[in-house]
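User: For documentation purposes, I need each entry recorded in a consistent format: the amino acid sequence on its own, followed directly by the corresponding structure tokens. There are two entries in this batch. Please keep commentary to a minimum and don't merge the entries.

Assistant: Recorded as requested. Entry 1:
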Amino acid sequence: MKKLLIATLSILSISIPYAQGPPQLENSPPGQVFLTPQIDLKLRPVPLLVPDKFKGQVPEGEMLQLPPGFAASVFALTELVGPRFMAWSPEGVLHVANMKVEGSEWAPRHDTSTPPARDQMFAQIVALPDRDGDGVADTTLVVAANLWFPHSLQFYQNDLYVGDMHEVVRLRDNDGDGIYEERTVVVGNLPAGHHRTRTILFDENSAKLYLSVGSSCDLCRETDERRATILQADPDGANLRVYARGLRNAIGMAFHPLTRQLWITGNGHDREGNHLPPEVITPVEDGGFYGWPLAYGYQVPVDFTISQYRDAILPLTHQDTLAIESMVRPAVQIPAHLAPMAIYFNTDEHFPPQYENAAFVALRGGLIKVKEPKVIAIFSEPDGSQARVGDFLTGFEADKRGKNWGKPVGLAGDGRGNLYLSSDWLNHLIIKIEAPPSSTAIEEYSTLLPSRFTLSQNYPNPFNNSTTIHFSLPTSEQVRLAVYNLAGQEVVELVRGQYRAGNYALSWDGRDLDGHPLASGVYLYRIEAGGQEKVRKLLLLQ
């Protein structure tokens, strides 16, 4: 029997100051700016829980906004300074790049074009074990030191790879103590300075290493062909080449779990106001060109009449024009200057079913105060079409000094219903986001196609722990099934989505949208499909 899970999303329209009419990214013509339509994930206030060991180290009483049923708590805090991207070791221990350790040359005031001596590099990789399984890191263990500007890391074939600003290094633990004492440079002499983040990603299917290298400027023609690109190499660094170009700063990279296509998060240029250009989250192809420094979005030319860099780029050549015309429509475009960082595709079956294969993206927020840091969720077809975007985690509002108390950067899931988020601003910490316990599942229980649309009486009825609702569809239809109180108020939506013709059995545990048990009493459940609806009563006894 095939298990199906339930989606609950409502589509909203958005207002865009530089677009005419409703945003329809899929139908947008070249040369025009459109944003991806938004969906409402019905965020609710949730307190950020602070374990006793961290009391006094992070502001108490902070409230975040999350979808119903999700919870948030501090997982790690002590000795974290500028935590960036994260990765799980083969032993299941979370590791993070500790980038802004005291004395490290991360700050803009320092010269970042030339690497200092190794003993003058102070950044680290730290491990955050949770040995007792209480949901809190036991300690902060330095497993690799003397790094310059480590931003990303990944375990590959039991070795730890780190994307530092000027190189990619392989770290090896030879004695099994969890400390990586052997260091080998895999890709060296990378261009340093300006955009300093180097994100690495391994494709285990093809045994290839991918590496993002940002531009040396806001808008200019690069002299180093490795700048503003995604590079590809063998795991040992051999056969290094440009995989995709025209990416000013592609900080996040991830492979779609179904297509294995590489997705990136792209940060746009400045100097065109608060609304341009939009940031992009999109799949990229081998040999593809993605606009920078000539254009953005879907073949939208940069307005060099207002750019201080026009003399460095103009006039455009015929080759430039062909490159712009080769640009494909991005899967997702979001408002400008939100600074998208990590991207993480969810495959955790403990998450609510609407998030299966959804992409979570951390938005660090730009220098403009109105650009609130947050985490968004992206829902799309596997090829990126029909994308919709919803706010998933908000609440990092500005304090009295005009600064946000947190800046989302890294994302990592543990496969057990938890999503981890690193913040590298003011409060340097890792937040654990817990998915709600699953309360609803639907099962296709027969291969025989029904002849009519039906909604059966739930069984058992009355019930207290769980009940089952059967419905049948003679044809494929968009289905919605919800429970209402006798006043006609909806208390929980159980089914929303496209279902093929078949017979279905829905189990429900009597909880509302927030996961709270409903009061005893009589309720109505109504199904809508193919322009028809059916209603029945049920009796809940708690």
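Entry 2:
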Amino acid sequence: MAANGTNGNRATTRERILVVDDEQTIREILSKYITQLGYEVVTAEDGMHALEKLAALPFDLVLTDLKMPKMDGRELLKRLAEAYPDIPKIVLTGLGTDEDIILALKTGAYDFLTKPIIDFEILHHALKRALERKRLNDERTRYADQQTHITEIVSMLNRGSETEEIFKTLSTTLKRFIPFNRLTLALIDETTGSVVTKYIESDQQVLLGRGEEFPLERSSLNDAAERKVVIIINDLERYYTEHASSVNAKRLLEEGMRSSLVLPLIINDRTRGFLIFASVTPHSFKEDHISFLESIVGQISFSIQRGELLSELETHTEKLEQLVETRTREVLKTQKVTIFALSKLADARDVDTGQHLERIRRFCALIAQVLKYSEHGKHITNQYLRDLYDSSILHDIGKVGIPDAILLKQGPLTAEEFDIIKTHTTIGFNSLRSASKDLGEDTFLNMAMDITLYHHERWDGLGYPYGLKGDEIPLSSRIVAISDVYDALTSKRPYKAPYEHEMAVEIMKDEQSHFDPLLFKIFLENNEEIDRIRREFK
């Protein structure tokens, strides 16, 4: 059954995003950027104000900082998980620890981003993924709800309910999905050719009452009967000016109705009656209402089609569930591996692990970004930058397999002990390769495996585990190598005190044969920014 909408539909409402951050500058930047993407943005300066905004308006997504006065992001996430579990939450913070990440995800955060945002496409991508998942979940829920009610209606039909009881149940049920003020069941008297109103449910004064009869040809129903199609009239006043002989249109207008939807009841390829929906609001009815309504009408008109209609809906719902599952798996893939690695690193009992990881990813991001905008970096994409930023923190996950007696030894290592230390590269690689078999390969995992295995290789070929030389070493591993050496020199270790920034740079200059010359040049030219990052994440 085709649909015929005579006056079109209303524009779709923009998705609304709540930005929560105690820094006005950050709120303004985020609001301007997200608004340019086509979303509606509302801001709040802390968790308390955010809850007030949520109580007043519906939101499709919450983007929140963690560190805030009055009510911080952690408490806000807990409140949101209880009161608004269906709204996706994205955490954006510049001071988050590993514990913050895990807590945020446990309390319902969909994603976790760090600021300052290096590439706003990261934020854009996160917003799109979260909102898309919400839309899919909402659709799946809607269809599941529809299926439940269709099943209830079918059960009622099988119990032999009277037509009036069926109609009343239909009216109550359909209110959940269709915006109408009046529902009428009208049947065609084939002897006289007239339309007779059998049952009416309305929250307005009824002028076109039960048992009233009028000629089919002098009504807005005639077109639906002849063509056997759904007719949507979203402007009854305009329709009546063009069809002044329509009795039912006149009566509906007198009752205050401004739009209508007519579904013909087809039995044995003949129109035998109608379900007529009417609303006091113009443009109430949309094309996407029709498939559900036709399913209901089919159950009433042809009970024998019950199984097929339900089967189609179940198949559609199953496809939606599979789609949601696939999209969710793609989004969670990186999160699962990252959280796994971070938790394992924490088990290594290195008190500086979290800050070390944060420094490494920011050093790498800086070097790679400078390279991208140089004449040598045209092949570097935004996806490459995102993968490097996320995967660089996994470079030392293999150290979870190194005994504490060696990993935390005070003083120099023996040759045998250093050989054991070297195995952390292959241990980490094998762990990630195993994870990729379960989660499926992607660019993030492939880069993580390269970094884990090769970040101790040297440009001069004297590194480990394989003694690769020059361009044989993956670019990502070369970037991490510089970042890791600098961080090791400037950090406290069980066997040494930290070097100052200037001394660490001089030591690296003396050993620059270890590093990619182009990348090391970028490191030197940007060493002041490197030092700033180091001091920020001590």
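Summary note for entry 2:
The chain has three domains: 3-118, 179-284, 348-536.
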